[in-house]
Amino acid sequence: PKECTLAVIKPDTSEELREEITREIRAAGFTISQQKEMVFSRDMAEEFYKQHRDKPFFNQLLDYMCRGPCTMLILSKVNAVEEWRRRMGPADPSKAKETAPSSLRARFAKDILENTVHGSSNSQHAEEKIQLVFGEISSESQVIST
Ligand code: CMP
Q1: What is the pLDDT of residues 12-25, one digit of tens each?
Q2: In sequence order, what DSSP letters do the residues of 25-85 get, joined into one string?
Q3: Which of 9, 69, 80, 95 has a CA 20 to 30 Å removed from the CA of 89?
Q4: Ligand 1 pocket: which residues have CB below 6 Å?
């Protein structure tokens, strides 16, 4: 059965790289059912990453995610959650280069924090984050273009 996931292209990317990544997403057979550029408010980023609230890098993560626009994408495909995670590769690009050299993070990420892309870790999170970003709460953040 078809499944949805939320993909985020993070603020460490150029316009050119965003286009490259969305091209690759389509070429991999995902349907992009919704897309928008958005700057996270601090509150919304906190909510988005609440699962990481107690991590030592939480504040750095919020600074990074709020410093510029993100491209938010709803991807749909059979097995979308797992497949998007596989295409991203491990969070740490040095590990990604070893174990998944063709993955997006292996090719484009700077380090474990500024790692270019995000994907929901399971379909329940996907549903929750899609609601947060594309549902009514998202009106609290600044939408740059749709
Ligand atoms: P993401 O997949 O969006 O989920 C949580 C994010 O926290 C992760 O990508 C990175 O941007 C960041 N992150 C994860 N682990 C670390 C770490 N050890 N140090 C700094 N940032 C991290």
Answers
A1: 999 999 999 999 99
A2: HHHTT-EEEEEEEEEPPHHHHHHHTGGGTTSTTHHHHHHHHHSS-EEEEEEEEETHHHHHH
A3: 69
A4: 52, 57, 61, 91, 112-113, 115, 118
